[in-house]
Write a structure and sequence with these properties.
By secondary structure, this protein is mostly helical. The protein contains ten helices and no strands.
Length: 240
């Protein structure tokens, strides 16, 4: 094997040192980025936790008052934070109530998706999801208060407004209507997507009415609602 001359050896050693230096720098950059990500993730988690703490406090006030007539200062007092800090997370009461509504809707839809996944038939799934709607929209619930607040300024076109918030729920219902066709209690000619929009609107608005009435009358309405819906798209003799 030929021996390297001095210049070649120096060049190789220099190259090795440069490669080591570059690798060291790269590792340092990666470590710094990793620390930055962890710090950012920690800040994000703390921010999300603070937002939820604020929303929980506002929800408690809504339930205690039976309405949305709370002050932002009351929320900040309950959270033991300054109003300035509160306004960092929510610029006003409208934004705070909207956030409570959005979070409640997401939680509701997560719940019905879980129930539907466990249901052995479309009948069982539809029955379960309606029960979940009425449970979450019970009298005095933050979702019922927040929804009423959200829709107060949109009396015209209420159904489209409602269903725009419940797109995921409508998708779940559409899937169950398609499942119902296979089970033979939904007519094959029914447009499941369109029907699901109206079913969703009907579930939400009826659940709100049920929440206001309460008692045995509410139970009777709950028991008959899906049969009423199926009159327009069910096969002969279809019922839940």
């Amino acid at each position: 094997m030929a021996l390297l001359n001095d210049d070649a050896a120096v060049e190789i050693v220099g190259g090795v040192k440069a490669a080591r230096s570059a690798a060291h720098d790269l590792m340092g950059e990666q470590l710094a980025r990793g620390k930055a990500r962890l710090h950012s993730s920690s800040k994000t988690r703390k921010s999300a936790q603070t937002r939820m703490r604020i929303m929980d406090a506002a929800s408690e006030l809504m339930v205690e008052r039976g309405n949305t007539n709370f002050l932002m200062s009351e929320v900040s007092d309950r959270c033991h934070m300054s109003k300035g800090s509160l306004y960092y997370y929510f610029r006003d009461k409208d934004e705070l109530v909207s956030a409570i509504f959005d979070e409640s809707v997401d939680d509701l839809v997560d719940g019905i998706e879980s129930l539907v996944a466990k249901s052995s038939s479309a009948r069982e799934a539809l029955r379960a999801l309606y029960a979940e709607f009425t449970r979450r929209l019970r009298v005095g619930s933050p979702l019922a208060f927040a929804m009423t607040y959200e829709l107060a300024g949109t009396p015209d076109g209420m159904l489209p407004e409602v269903t725009s918030y419940f797109t995921r729920a409508a998708q779940v219902i559409a899937a169950q209507l398609e499942r119902g066709k296979a089970e033979g209690f939904i007519r094959a000619d029914v447009d499941s997507q369109t029907a699901a929009v109206f079913v969703t609107g009907g579930l939400v608005t009826t659940s709100l009415a049920v929440a206001r009435r309460g008692g045995e009358e509410a139970d009777a309405i709950s028991a008959n609602l899906m049969d009423m819906i199926l009159r327009g798209m069910g096969s002969e003799g279809a019922s839940l």
